[in-house]
């Protein structure tokens, strides 16, 4: 079955609520009529309460969203049928099969009302799916008319096979529908001279990209990256650049999008946008977001971005300037995220950053709470500092910019909301600040500054107290490494017990000792 994420406007309803039933009556009519015509009672089992239905607000959604919602319902219902079939709940299997049959017919009818150019192949798949759904319903109806266990056992394998075929046909039809819609939107983008029509098409395309990687692959395969970069090369569409670049960033989360970007010299186009001072800050920020996406260290298919190295210096220069002049935390986050990823992408980037006084600019930004205002932004800054800290020249930059104080503050990073993503960001900040401290403490001046700022007691606390590091093993390892480096430079800063347990043993033994402390607290 296609993997379709749950749209925000989808929700569960209680079918015994008359008010909700009335609101959803228009979409539910087909299903209810089918049940009545076949003389099937509506189930009163408890799990009937979880029946999925479309929001009554569907009339305000565009046709694509309606299609995706209907597809999501069908996909979910097919999964639930398989679960009920496993438990031999034949009455439920049949009533749900009837409902799926109705939803499939409604989806096809709805789609055909707003689509005038369906292909012959699509009509064939529609007929195949409708016929197979009817066959499926007939099978399940026979099952509720008999109580013979042998017959039911024999029928079960046939129903399973039919269910698999229905799911297969449904997946293929949805693939065709979405491909056709992507083609229509891209054709509109390519042929329209109207800013309004182009904006509408790009907005719909962006909505599609938010439905998951599968939709992004379809868009990329149909030439989405090419069409969007074409917009970014036309001055008459300058007002649409931010929206277009945001859509590009989404499409380029998949390998197909990256390959297309390389073919159309997308890197060069992004470099031109970033270095053109006549563009708005919003345009620069969205271009930075595309750079952040295509250089993400989590992607495994960046090796073909050879053209990036050719334009890296001017891109890095533009991103540093964007960080320095950012008017909001969001703009700074996008620019610094791109820089952080680039420092992973190629080590030469760190040398360029050093030449551009990026260390000083980033340290200054961290003192402005309106710009570096979240753990996510601090995560990007400390990532850049950690990667730059392998260069010997960074130590003096850190001292001059009061960077050791910042590293100390980051060792205290804690989430204020308890949100899991924010907690994870805080852990990364703690870990990377400890790593940076360990690397820079090769320099006696940095180590001395760290000792004077009481970094050693803080590192010890992080090692010994699991709650201080949110039970993170990666933070523990980084803190042990930093503590050992500082202990070499300032052995008098540790009590004997700390030295014997956290510094003298092998690192793995100290790690096991600290994790055992965690178990004893529990």
β content, as a range? under 5%
The major sheet is characterized as:
2 strands, antiparallel
The residue fraction in helices comes out at over 70%
* Helix/strand/pairing category: mainly alpha
From the spread of the alpha carbons, the general shape counts as: flat
Spatial order of the strands forming the largest sheet: 1-2
Sequence of secondary-structure elements: EHHEHHHHHHHHHHHHHHHHHHHHHHHH
Overall number of strands: 2
Cα radius of gyration in angstroms = 29 Å
Low-pLDDT sequence parts: 1-15, 28-61, 518-522
Terminal CA distance: 43 Å
How many H/I helices? 26
What would the average pLDDT be, to the nearest integer? 83
Protein name: INSC protein
GO molecular function, one term: cytoskeletal anchor activity
Pfam families: Insc_C, INSC_LBD
GO biological process, one term: regulation of asymmetric cell division
Describe the structure.
The protein is an all-alpha fold and 522 residues long. Among the domains are: 56-177, Four Helix Bundle (Hemerythrin (Met), subunit A); 192-264, no CATH class; 390-521, no CATH class. Helices cover 72% and strands 1% of the residues. The protein has 26 helices and two strands. Strands 1-2 form a two-stranded antiparallel sheet. Helix 12 packs antiparallel against helix 13 and helix 21 (420-440) packs parallel to helix 24 (473-489). It is flat and about 85 Å long. Mean pLDDT is 83; it is low at 1-15, 28-61 and 518-522.
Structural topology:
Blueprint: E1 11-12, H1 18-23, H2 25-37, E2 52-53, H3 63-86, H4 90-114, H5 120-143, H6 149-191, H7 195-209, H8 213-221, H9 224-231, H10 241-251, H11 255-263, H12 266-275, H13 281-294, H14 306-325, H15 329-345, H16 348-355, H17 358-366, H18 375-388, H19 394-400, H20 403-410, H21 420-440, H22 444-452, H23 455-464, H24 473-489, H25 496-503, H26 507-521
Antiparallel strand pairs: 1-2
Helix pairs in contact: 2-4, 3-4, 3-6, 4-5, 5-6, 6-7, 6-9, 7-10, 8-11, 9-10, 10-13, 12-13, 12-14, 13-15, 14-15, 15-18, 18-21, 20-21, 21-24, 23-24, 24-26
């Amino acid at each position: 079955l296609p993997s379709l994420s749950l749209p925000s406007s989808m929700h569960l309803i209680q079918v015994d609520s008359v008010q909700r039933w009335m609101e959803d009556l228009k979409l539910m009519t087909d299903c209810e009529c089918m049940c009545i015509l076949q003389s099937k009672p509506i189930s009163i089992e408890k799990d009937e309460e979880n029946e999925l239905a479309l929001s009554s607000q569907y009339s305000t959604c565009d046709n694509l969203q309606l299609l995706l919602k209907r597809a999501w319902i069908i996909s979910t219902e097919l999964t639930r049928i398989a679960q009920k079939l496993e438990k031999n709940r034949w009455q439920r299997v049949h009533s749900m099969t009837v409902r799926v049959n109705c939803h499939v017919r409604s989806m096809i009818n709805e789609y055909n009302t707003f689509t005038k150019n369906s292909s012959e192949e699509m009509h064939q798949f529609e007929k195949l799916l409708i016929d197979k759904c009817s066959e499926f319903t007939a099978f399940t109806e026979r099952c509720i008319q008999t109580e013979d266990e042998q017959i039911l056992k024999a029928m079960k394998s046939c129903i399973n096979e039919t269910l698999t075929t229905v799911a297969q046909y449904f997946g293929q039809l949805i693939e065709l529908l979405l491909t056709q819609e992507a083609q229509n939107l891209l054709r509109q983008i390519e042929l329209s001279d109207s800013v309004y029509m182009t904006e509408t098409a790009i907005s719909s395309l962006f909505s599609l990209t938010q439905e998951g990687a599968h939709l992004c692959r379809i868009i990329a395969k149909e030439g989405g990256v090419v069409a969007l970069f074409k917009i970014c090369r036309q001055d008459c569409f300058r007002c649409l650049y931010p929206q277009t670049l945001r859509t590009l960033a989404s499409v380029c989360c998949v390998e197909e999008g990256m390959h297309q970007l390389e073919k159309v010299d997308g890197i060069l186009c992004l470099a031109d946008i970033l270095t053109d001072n006549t563009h708005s800050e919003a345009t620069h920020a969205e271009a930075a977001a595309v750079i952040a996406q295509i250089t993400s260290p989590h992607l495994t298919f960046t090796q073909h971005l050879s053209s990036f190295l050719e334009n890296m210096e001017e891109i890095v220069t533009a991103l540093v300037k964007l960080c320095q002049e950012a008017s909001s935390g969001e703009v700074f986050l996008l620019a610094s995220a791109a820089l952080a990823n680039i420092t992973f992408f190629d080590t030469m980037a760190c040398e360029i950053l050093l030449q551009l006084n990026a260390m000083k600019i980033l340290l200054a930004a961290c003192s402005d709470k309106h710009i570096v205002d979240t753990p996510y932004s601090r995560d990007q800054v400390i990532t850049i500092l950690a990667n730059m800290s392998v260069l010997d020249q960074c130590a003096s930059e850190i001292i001059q910019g009061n960077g050791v104080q910042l590293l100390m503050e980051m060792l205290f990073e804690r989430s204020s909301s308890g949100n899991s993503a924010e907690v994870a960001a805080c852990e990364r900040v703690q870990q990377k600040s400890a790593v940076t401290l360990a690397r820079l403490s090769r320099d006696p001046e940095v180590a001395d500054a760290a000792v004077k700022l009481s970094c050693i007691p803080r590192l010890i606390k992080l090692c010994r107290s699991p709650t201080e590091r949110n039970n993170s093993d990666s933070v523990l390892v980084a803190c042990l490494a930093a503590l050992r480096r500082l202990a070499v430079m300032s052995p008098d800063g540790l009590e004997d017990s700390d030295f014997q347990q956290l510094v003298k043993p092998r690192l793995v033994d100290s790690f096991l000792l600290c994790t055992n402390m965690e178990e004893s607290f529990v």
